[in-house]
Amino acid sequence: MYLGGLFAAASSEERKYWGFLVFMKVLNEAPMEVASQIFTQNFMRCLMNQLAVEDRYLHKIAVKAAKSIQARTSKEPDFAYPALCGLMGPRGAVNFDQITKVKIVEKIVADVSHTAINQLMPFFEGLIVHSEADDKAAASRRQLIANFLQTIIKSFMTSAKEDDSDELDSAVQVIILTLAKYTYFSSDTAKPPISDATRELFRNKIMASLNIIISNQKRPSDIAYKVVQKIRDMEETGDSGKSIIDMSDTISESVHSAFKTLKKINKKSKQEGEQHDQAAQGLKLLYSLTILQVYNGDADAVSMLDELKMCYDKFLSHKKSNDEESGEASDALVEILLSFASKPSHLFRKMSEQVFGAFADKLTPTGLQSLLAVSPVLYM
């Protein structure tokens, strides 16, 4: 496109100024297929240089051009894809905002619609995989992408509408599972390889994203279940690479058994009445996050799976049980919830509150005593 010639290194400041005006004219009025092509290499170099220093001659017009990009994406959410490709792709920079000292990319990311995520995720994943940088720069780049992905999820959940829940759930799952792919599996395509520190960062982003979901979704257990089930599928098929989850045969068997029970709970959550549904949703959430904690290497989570199985048998399986057995299951559930609530994580505290609400009517005097004994410590 001729626009690139206006921003050639030898062009005068006047020609570049004219180029910015042409850029904004095309951006504001041209159809997407035309406007998508105006992020030329020469333009991006000039834009970044002018934005970076306030006293440069073209700084103000460069700021207007940058704001016009954000305005187009706000008006037309699907334009986020070409805009981010232009700003963060090979002609721009992943750390565009840091270089230019503006927050244009951050604002565009915060406005991304869930309908555009399927187009954007291959782009973001490509930035994770093909870093083309040294280990330190790659880690910084991957951290930036992970931050953006969490921002998108937060934006999705806080602006969600009731009638787009299915599409929203699907978009959120795509984001979390992309992070999971490089958290729990080795990738031959990632250059340089994903470091342990980056895996830990991605793991924390997954848990933080689930916390956002639990805080904003009416049925957060549905997403948590689908995520952990998909990770299991990825593990079994090997399509996402070799699993790096280190489990003994005993732990693997416990996890396998837990998934069988979890599938039964999921089925019941769609069949039972409202009261039973609340209990099934609570137990499904608890099971899903406990399995995820096993994947995260939490040794205590393995023993919790056996206790959760007892809770399922007494509360949801419709097997006849006496009052003593039901009381034991209730007390075990309280201990599990207290264990989660004591962890330094907003996710587990929020999850414990939701699950406790579903089973409060089954609380025994012993369970209540356990709860009262530690509640001052938990909420100090």
Automatic annotation (TrEMBL):
Tree of life domain: Eukaryota
Principal subcellular localisation of the protein: nucleus
Keywords: Nucleus
BP term (GO), one: regulation of DNA-templated transcription
Signal peptide: none
GO CC entries: nucleolus
Keyword Nucleus: yes
Gene Ontology molecular-function annotations: rDNA binding
Matches recorded under InterPro entries: DNA_pol_V/MYBBP1A
Pfam family, one: DNA_pol_phi
Cellular localisation: Nucleus
PANTHER family, A to Z: MYB-BINDING PROTEIN 1A, MYB-BINDING PROTEIN 1A FAMILY MEMBER
Protein name: Uncharacterized protein
Organism: Trichophyton rubrum (strain ATCC MYA-4607 / CBS 118892)
Higher taxonomy: Eukaryota, Fungi, Dikarya, Ascomycota, Pezizomycotina
